[in-house]
Design goal:
The chain is mostly helical and 77 residues long. The protein has one domain. Strands 1-2 form a two-stranded parallel ribbon. About 27% of the residues have low confidence.
Length: 77
């Protein structure tokens, strides 16, 4: 499980790429702790979380495709 604290990150979306890559090869679980100071920042962070979940899903799907292609190639060797 990879835990990301939004208060320590400049851009959650940039961190999501690393998180997604890590999760694909480990637990595939991302926990994001939101430390919002106001409703306005909370809304912005929720939008970022939606982007993160999209990045994580896309990365997992792409990873599975790559691993499937790799296993197909290896089976022909």
């Amino acid at each position: 499980m990879l835990k990301i604290n939004s208060r320590k990150c400049n851009s959650l979306v940039n961190v999501a790429v690393l998180a997604a890559t890590t999760c694909v090869f480990h637990t595939r679980v991302v926990v994001v702790t939101i430390g919002a100071e106001s409703n306005r920042t909370a809304v912005a962070q929720v939008q970022d979380l939606q982007k993160i979940s999209a990045v994580v899903r896309k990365t997992i799907v792409n990873s599975r495709r790559r691993s499937d292609l790799l296993s197909e190639r290896l089976s022909f060797i």
